[in-house]
Amino acid sequence: MGFGVSAIIELREVSKLYGFGDAMTLALDEVSLTIDQNEFVAVMGPSGSGKSTLMNVIGLLDRPTHGEFKFNGRSAARLGADQRAKIRRDTIGFIFQSYNLLPRLTVLENVALPLAYKGVPAGKRLAMASHMLERVGLQDREYFYPGQLSGGQVQCVAIARALVNDPKLIIADEPTGNLDSVASRLIMELLTEIHKTGNSILFVTHNPELTRYASRVVYMRDGAIMQDEATKFGEVAATALKQMYTIPERTVDDDLAGVSALMHAVPQKPAVRGATAAKSGKKAKRKPAKRKKSGAKK
Ligand SMILES: Nc1ncnc2c1ncn2[C@@H]1O[C@H](COP(=O)(O)OP(=O)(O)OP(=O)(O)O)[C@@H](O)[C@H]1O
Ligand SMILES: [Mg+2]
Q1: Which atom of ligand 1 is nearest to the CA of 298?
Q2: 58 within ligand 1 shell (Cβ under 6 A)
Q3: Is 51 in the pocket of ligand 1 (CB under 6 A)?
Q4: How far apart are CA 60 and CA 289, in angstroms?
């Protein structure tokens, strides 16, 4: 895991800020992470903890606000838009939760699409796409449209498309998020096979069961990595099993702590409030507590 020649990803104190002023969110908070070639890494953490932001930075879809990021030994900050696009096209395969297949293209054409961007001639790219579909067990669906497939099949197509360029790194953001357990297993087994051929795989999941497939699990919270655990293939990661990564429920005390912090910032007018209460002879009504706006989702 040290910084070495075989590292495909090197992040040093990478932060990502979204928005300005009150609406500012620290989506990544000084994340340092090294991923070597051929690692199979699961990323876990509660909603809003920065997992997708991390995937987008690593996948060169987004730029960090601070910190250093090297992709395959090259400093990402020095890459221009064209170079980033080229690296994405040639070295990274993306699989997202909401399948982004093009509905008006056949399954075969969807899988062949990355090759079209690369300038591979039509005949050759359809043959390559067909071969990939065979690998994911969907050769008999080549001429179907995405709308005619099951969720699991669509995700297999997305995987075939991510792999058609033979990318060094696969980034999968909740690839099984919309699938039942049988389809999830199929997808993970497919990724395992791909991993065996030497690819690095980085996948986000909320499902502790799926850490069985990983050799390493990174746990995030509030934009930071709170734990980085080596795990055995076939076993659920210890921390994931304990579900230590889940954020505890907010308690009334937490809410009140937020409210009192707000109150410190707002000059109070006890004299006026007291006067009103005395006049009406009633207890001063408690104002409904305003919740402090938090940047995190949910
Ligand atoms: N484009 C954006 N503009 C502003 N804030 C954003 C943007 N993208 C993400 N965020 C914020 O950054 C934080 C991290 O979001 P991110 O999508 O990385 O979380 P996540 O861990 O992937 O969550 P989930 O499990 O729900 O997918 C959240 O608070 C989110 O609201
Ligand atoms: Mg996400």
Answers
A1: 26
A2: no
A3: yes
A4: 42
Q: What is the pLDDT of residues 191-232, one digit of tens each?
A: 998 899 889 999 999 999 999 999 999 999 999 999 999 999
- Domains in the chain: ranges and CATH: 7-242 (3.40.50.300)
Name residues with Cβ closer than 5 Å to ligand 2, which is an ion: 51-52
Which uninterrupted H or E stretch holds 43? strand 40-44
- Which of 17, 18, 97 is the pocket-test mutation for ligand 1 (most atoms within 8 Å of CB)? 18
Tens of pLDDT, residues 247-270: 445 455 545 544 433 333 334 444
pLDDT of amino acid 251: 53
SS3 14: strand
Top pLDDT among 26 and 278 is at 26
The alpha helices in 41-196, defined as continuous H runs, are 51-58, 81-91, 107-117, 122-135, 151-163, 181-196
Average pLDDT over residues 89-109: 88
